[in-house]
Specification:
By secondary structure, the chain is of the alpha/beta class. It has one domain: 3-Layer(aba) Sandwich (Rossmann fold), CATH 3.40.50. The chain is built from 10 helices and 9 strands. It has a 9-stranded mixed beta sheet, sandwiched between helices. Helix 3 crosses helix 4 and helix 3 packs parallel to helix 6.
Length: 301
């Protein structure tokens, strides 16, 4: 929504009048391919917390030209365990979902919270240039998640065949795109994921820019991508009292999701509540699956 608003602001500088363009085929989906052979340049700066049952490591890796910061949460013991990537909301960083990642790590899961790559500086002087930046930013976000999967699969503590994803708000939107692209992730939990129809934004734009705006927004529309996720690989959790994302936008994602998607509603605001995460982790336990002893002390911390 934030990106669409940015596009509309630039669209407003284009004056003119005319009718809407005729119906046409939807814009092509984006290509989220990347050079998997490029060095990750993974850095583990060591433990970031005091001695505790769960070890939080300050880590980073390279995605494209950017260094992605993260926290790797390791339960005690050895052997390969499932792993889950956590992606936060708009403007937030690796700290936002760290507590939730700790709750899951207490179930004997390796978790990685990341700071998504920031949007590129808005240097474009035209609406066309700004729209191109929206596409580039979206690709960078998805590729950063795919590189996070590369990191997890490289660790001796991770079972490369049991990787999941938890995204909240903007992180859930990114997850919808990743779900259509990254086959190495077996299960996705998307919390408070919503999307308004592309037509709602296009109708507010200046007529000369409508066709281009529609093409760009269709190419990053999470509704189109979530429909291409593997059946049964998604869980959607939404709040009945969401004060940020309208209910209609939440339903757009839920209705577009493939057959077998688990959808649950909570009497909660946009941030949801601990019950939602508890249910999400129970669902992940079956999908990945999650086994091994729980870290009892950390589970209640």
């Amino acid at each position: 929504m934030r990106r669409a608003a940015c596009a509309l602001a630039l669209a407003g500088v284009v004056a003119g009048c005319g009718s809407s363009p005729p119906k046409r085929a939807a814009a092509p989906l984006l290509d989220f391919a990347y050079d998997a052979s490029a060095p990750l340049r993974y850095v583990d700066r060591g433990r970031a917390n005091t001695p505790a049952p769960l070890a939080i490591h300050d880590v980073s890796f390279v995605s494209g030209r950017q260094r992605i910061e993260g926290y790797l949460v390791l339960p005690p013991g050895s052997g390969r365990r499932p792993a889950v990537v956590f992606v936060p909301g708009t403007g937030s960083d690796r700290r936002e979902l760290l507590a939730q990642a700790g709750w899951l790590a207490a179930r004997n899961v390796v978790t990685l919270t990341i700071t998504p790559p920031p949007p590129a500086p808005r240097t474009a002087k035209t609406a066309t240039g700004a729209l191109a930046q929206i596409r580039a930013d979206t690709v960078a976000e998805v590729v950063a998640v795919r590189r996070a999967v590369d990191v997890l699969r490289s660790l001796r503590s991770v079972d490369p065949h049991r990787i999941g994803y938890v995204g909240w708000s903007a992180g859930a939107r990114t997850g919808a795109l990743v779900a259509a692209t990254e086959l190495r992730i077996r299960a996705f939990v998307l919390l408070s994921a919503g999307a308004a129809p592309v037509s709602a934004y296009v109708a507010r734009a200046s007529p000369p820019l409508r066709a281009e705006l529609r093409s760009v927004l269709e190419s990053v529309d999470p509704v189109r991508y979530v429909a291409r996720a593997r059946p049964g690989s998604l869980m959607l959790e939404d709040g009945k009292r969401d004060e940020v994302v309208p209910r209609a936008a939440l339903l757009n994602i839920a209705h577009a999701a493939p057959k077998g998607t688990t959808v649950r509603w909570y009497d909660a605001p946009h941030a949801l509540d601990r019950a939602a995460y508890h249910d999400a982790y129970d669902w992940l336990a079956h999908r990945l699956p999650i086994d091994g002893p729980r870290v009892r002390v950390a589970e209640t911390a």
